C-alpha cells in the first residue's frame, strides 16, 4: 500500500519508471549467474525419472537384484579371504609407517627414509600381487581393495613428508615462523590417536592441527546418511537396470566393427554413464565425505570446487577432486617446482602419475593390461591445450562437459569389450 | 613460481595453511549459488538426447512431419480465410483505438472512453465469435489468433490508460513532476509511427519514451534468429515424436478410469511436456523477444526474472512472464489499490482475470467449455498459501518445480481426453 500514495499520484509514478535499459538474465552480457534453482530442478527431475523408470519397466523387466551386488565383491559370500586380508594388512601398514617416525629420534634420517620407502612400495605392490594371484577376488572387489590401498599410500606419504618438514624446521633457526595458534607441535603429534584420526579423516594431506567443527550437527549427519543410503541404492539400480542392458546390446556392433552402430550405442551409453557419474560425484564427495567429516568433527569441507563452471580442462581437473588435487600440489608439484623443474614439465608429470594410477586401478582388478585409462588421462593434455587455445567462456564450458559425457563411455566400452572378448568369446 | 621462494621456505608454507574451516559448496550453508555451468550442461544433454532420440527411434519410427504442422493451422493449406481476416482486423483495430485518442482534443472524455470500450470489447468478442462459428479454423490456428488478439487488447488498454494519465497531468497543476529527460511529451506521441512501434515492441506497457539500445548488434541478432529457428523445429519434433504417442497411449487407461495406469501415463507425459515447456520458455521469452527487441532497438530486455529460484508460488507467477506481470501491476493491481481495495482482494482478482484468460484461450479454440484451465489457475491460490506457509528455501523451490512438472500434464490430459471422447468415441 506504500506504493500508492493517493489516487492522483500513482499515474505519474507508473508513467515514467516502466522500462529500463537492461539485458535479459540468460544473456551472458547480464553477468547473472545464480542458478541454484536448477539444482533443485535436477533433483526433482531425477525423482520423477526414477518413478517412471521403475513403474514402467516393461522393456527389460526389473533387473535390480541386491544379492547380485554382494556377489560382485565376493565370489563365495561365506568365504571372505580377500577382504579380511586387506583389512588386516591396512592396520599393519599404519603401524609400519608409524614406528619409523616415532623412532626417528633414535635411528638416523637415512634409515628411517629407507624403512618408509620399503613400506610404501609394499603398499602398492603387495595388494596388486594379491589381486592378480587370488582367483577368489572379483574385479569390483579388487578395484575397491586397490582404491583403499592407494588412498592409504597417499596419506602415509603425506604423513612422512610433513613430519620430515617438522624436523627440518627444528634443525634450521627459523623456529619463529611457527604460528602462535598451533596447539600441537612436533614431536607431540606422534601418537596412535593422531595417526588413526588422520587415516580416517576425509583428507589426504596430513597436518598437525586440523581445523575442527565446534559440534556434531545431528540433523546434518542424518540427512547425509540418508543421501548416502539412497544414492548408493540408486547407483546400483541404474547400473543394473540401464547400463548393463545398454552395454550388452552394444557388444554385437563392437565385435562386427559396425561404426555407425558403435557410435549410436556409445551415445546411448553416454547418458546413463554420465548420470551415474554425477550421482557418484554427489554421493562420494558431498554426502559420504561430509558424513565422515561431521562424525569426526573435521572442519575443512572443501572436497570439491565449482568444477561445473570450468571453462578449461585444467580447471576441471584441479577442482573436481580437491583432496587428490591438494595432495598433488603439496607433495608432488611444489616439491618439483622447489627443485627448479619447469612449470609445464611438472604439470605433465602430474598427468603422467595420475594416468599411471588410473591404469593401475583398472587393469590390475580386470587382470588385463590395455592402457585405455592411461591413454584417456594422457589425452587430457592435448585436449586442455586445444580448449584453452580456441574456446572461451560458455563454449569452453560446453567443451569440458562434452569431453566428460563422451570420453568416459568410450573408455568404459573399450574395457568392457576387451573383457567380454577375453572371457566369453574365447571360451565359446 | 612466485609461490616457491626457495627450497627451504616452501615446507613452512605448506605445513600451516593446508586446511581451513569451511563448508562444501553444495551445502546451502555455504551461500554459494553460481551454477552457470549447469545451464551449459542442460544444453549439451539436450543435444546428446536429441541425437540419441532421432538416431535410434526404433520404437515408433520417425514421426516428425513438417507438412503436418501447416495443416494444424489450416485445414486447407490453399485457403487462408481465418488468417487473412485476423491480420486485416488487427490493423483495423489499431486504427480504431488510435482515432479516439487523436480526437480526444475535439471530442469529450466520456465519448472517447465509450468509443474505447466498444473497440476493446470487440477485440475480445469478435475473434472468439469468428473462431467458434468458422469450421475452417483448427484448434491450433484458433488459439494462435486469440493469443494475438489478447496481446493487442492488453497493449491498447495500456495505450488508452497512459494517454489518459497524460491528460490528467495536463489538467492538474503538477506539471513540474514531468522528468526533464523526457524527449516526447503528450500530445506529441500521437502519431501512427509511435503506435505501430508500440504494437510490435515486445512489451505490453505503453510509455511515451521507450529506452532504446544504441545499435543493432548483428551477431546477437543472428544467434537469436538461429535459436528461434532451431527451437521451433525442436518443439514441433518433440511434440510429434514424444508427446503425441504418449498421449495416444494414455487414452485407454483414461477411458477405463484405471487409476494406477493413469498416474503412470501422467508421469510419463510429465517429462516431455515439461521439457517442451522449458524450451518454449527459452524460445519465446529469450530468443524471440530478444530478436524482436534487437531488431527494433528496444532497450528493456527484462522479459523474465529468476523464476527458477522461486521459493514461493507467488514469486514464480510474478517473475516468469514479466510483460504480463508488469501490465497486471500497472493497469490492474495499482489502480485497484489506488481505489482503496484490499491487497489480498486485488491479488485474488488478478488470479481470477488470469484464470478467465487462460480458459478463454483454451476453451474457445477447442469449442469445448470444461473449466480445467480456470480451475488450474484458481488452484494456484491455495497452493501459494500452502507453500508459503509450510515450505522454506530449497523445499519451497522443489515444491514450485513439482507443481510445474505435475500440474501442466494433468490439465493437458484433461482437455485431450475430453476432446478425444467428444470427437472420436462419440463418432465410432
UniProtKB/TrEMBL annotation, chains A, B:
GO terms, biological process: triglyceride biosynthetic process
TM regions (residue ranges): 38-56, 140-157, 225-244, 275-293, 344-363, 369-391, 398-416
Keywords attached to this entry: Acyltransferase, Endoplasmic reticulum, Membrane, Transferase, Transmembrane, Transmembrane helix
Protein's cellular compartments: Endoplasmic reticulum membrane
Primary site of residence: endoplasmic reticulum
GO MF term (any one): diacylglycerol O-acyltransferase activity
Domain of life: Eukaryota
Keyword flag Secreted: no
Membrane topology per record: Multi-pass membrane protein
Statement: the UniProt record of this protein carries the keyword Transferase: yes
Catalytic residue list: 358
Cellular component terms per the entry's GO annotation: endoplasmic reticulum membrane
Pathway linked to the protein: Lipid metabolism; glycerolipid metabolism
Catalysed reaction, written as an equation: 1,2-di-(9Z-octadecenoyl)-glycerol + (9Z)-octadecenoate + H(+) = 1,2,3-tri-(9Z-octadecenoyl)-glycerol + H2O; 2-(9Z-octadecenoyl)-glycerol + (9Z)-octadecenoyl-CoA = 1,2-di-(9Z-octadecenoyl)-sn-glycerol + CoA; hexadecane-1,2-diol + hexadecanoyl-CoA = 2-hydroxyhexadecyl hexadecanoate + CoA; all-trans-retinol + an acyl-CoA = an all-trans-retinyl ester + CoA
Subunit structure: Homodimer or homotetramer; both forms have similar enzymatic activities.
Entry similarity comment: Belongs to the membrane-bound acyltransferase family. Sterol o-acyltransferase subfamily.
Record protein name field: O-acyltransferase
Gene: dgat1a
Amino acid at each position: 500500500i506504500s506504493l500508492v500514495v493517493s489516487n492522483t499520484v500513482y499515474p505519474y509514478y507508473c508513467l515514467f519508471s516502466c522500462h529500463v535499459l537492461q539485458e535479459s538474465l540468460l544473456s551472458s552480457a547480464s553477468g547473472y549467474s545464480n542458478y541454484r534453482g536448477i539444482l533443485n530442478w535436477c533433483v526433482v527431475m531425477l525423482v520423477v525419472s526414477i518413478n517412471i523408470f521403475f513403474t514402467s519397466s516393461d522393456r527389460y523387466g526389473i533387473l535390480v537384484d541386491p544379492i547380485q551386488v554382494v556377489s560382485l565383491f565376493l565370489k563365495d559370500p561365506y568365504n571372505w579371504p580377500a577382504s579380511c586380508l586387506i583389512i588386516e594388512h591396512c592396520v599393519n601398514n599404519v603401524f609400519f609407517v608409524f614406528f619409523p617416525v616415532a623412532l626417528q629420534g633414535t635411528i638416523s634420517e637415512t634409515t628411517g627414509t629407507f624403512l618408509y620407502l620399503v613400506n610404501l612400495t609394499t603398499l602398492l605392490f603387495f595388494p596388486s600381487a594379491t589381486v592378480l594371484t587370488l582367483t577368489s577376488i572379483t574385479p569390483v572387489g579388487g578395484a575397491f581393495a586397490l582404491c583403499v590401498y592407494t588412498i592409504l599410500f597417499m596419506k602415509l606419504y603425506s604423513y612422512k613428508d610433513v613430519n620430515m618438514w617438522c624436523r627440518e624446521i627444528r634443525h634450521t633457526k627459523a623456529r619463529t615462523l611457527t604460528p602462535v595458534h598451533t596447539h600441537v607441535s612436533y614431536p607431540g603429534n606422534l601418537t596412535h590417536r593422531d595417526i588413526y584420526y588422520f587415516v580416517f579423516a576425509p583428507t589426504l594431506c596430513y597436518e598437525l592441527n586440523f581445523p575442527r567443527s565446534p559440534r556434531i550437527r545431528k540433523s546434518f549427519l542424518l540427512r547425509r546418511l540418508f543421501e548416502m543410503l539412497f544414492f548408493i541404492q540408486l547407483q546400483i539400480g541404474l547400473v543394473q537396470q540401464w547400463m548393463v542392458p545398454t552395454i550388452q546390446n552394444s557388444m554385437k556392433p563392437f565385435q562386427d566393427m559396425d561404426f555407425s552402430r558403435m557410435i549410436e550405442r556409445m551415445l546411448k551409453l553416454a547418458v546413463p554413464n554420465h548420470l551415474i557419474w554425477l550421482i557418484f560425484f554427489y554421493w562420494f564427495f558431498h554426502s559420504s565425505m561430509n558424513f565422515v567429516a561431521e562424525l569426526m568433527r573435521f572442519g575443512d569441507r572443501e572436497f570439491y570446487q565449482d568444477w561445473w563452471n570450468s571453462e578449461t580442462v585444467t580447471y576441471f581437473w584441479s577442482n573436481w577432486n580437491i583432496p587428490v588435487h591438494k595432495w598433488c600440489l603439496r607433495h608432488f608439484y611444489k616439491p618439483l617446482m622447489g627443485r627448479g623443474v619447469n612449470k609445464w614439465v611438472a604439470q605433465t608429470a602430474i598427468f603422467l602419475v595420475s594416468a599411471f594410477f588410473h591404469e593401475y586401478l583398472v587393469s590390475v582388478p580386470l587382470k588385463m593390461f590395455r592402457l585405455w585409462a592411461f591413454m584417456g588421462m594422457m589425452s587430457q593434455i592435448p585436449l586442455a591445450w586445444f580448449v584453452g587455445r580456441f574456446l572461451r567462456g560458455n563454449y569452453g564450458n560446453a567443451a569440458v562437459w562434452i569431453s566428460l559425457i563422451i570420453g568416459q563411455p568410450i573408455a568404459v566400452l573399450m574395457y568392457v569389450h576387451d573383457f567380454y572378448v577375453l572371457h566369453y568369446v574365447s571360451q565359446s
